[in-house]
Amino acid sequence: MLNIDSIQNGIVIDHIQAGKGMRIYELLELDKLDCCVALIKNARSSKMGRKDIIKIEGDLAINFDVLGFIDNNITVCTIKNGELVKKENIVLPRRIKNVVKCKNPRCITSTEENLDQIFVLCDEKAHRYRCLYCEQAYKSHE
């Protein structure tokens, strides 16, 4: 069995749906960090069967909208001096900004530079968003 040490100070992103950890890693740009980051894929879980986990050593601000957009069942644990100090359950964000790009080639965001990509939640059950500018639908589980 693989053994990953606990962290003393940092963040643990837990209960990620199996297979989605790498997408979160990319969207949060964790490859650009100058600290220890562990991505554990397909870890055994009594609740979920399999899950992904990301451990980040150090103090870091996390974009909770990215996490909620990818998987709103994620838990974020803040660790200080080896102890759990805060545990947050992530919710589906009502609005996301610069997380994904609009797929409509006629959308103003495709032609105008430096225009934020903004999507608004339109169907909570289906996790469906719409582009603020052109109404193009985007499902968070695509």
Automatic annotation (TrEMBL):
Domain Aspartate carbamoyltransferase regulatory subunit N-terminal: 2-90
One GO cellular component term noted in the UniProt record for this chain: aspartate carbamoyltransferase complex
Keyword Protein biosynthesis included in the entry's annotation: no
Molecular function in Gene Ontology: metal ion binding
UniProt cross-references to Pfam families, sorted A to Z: PyrI, PyrI_C
Single Gene Ontology BP annotation: pyrimidine nucleotide biosynthetic process
Domain of life: Bacteria
Alphabetic keyword roster: Metal-binding, Pyrimidine biosynthesis, Zinc
Protein name, UniProt field: Aspartate carbamoyltransferase regulatory subunit
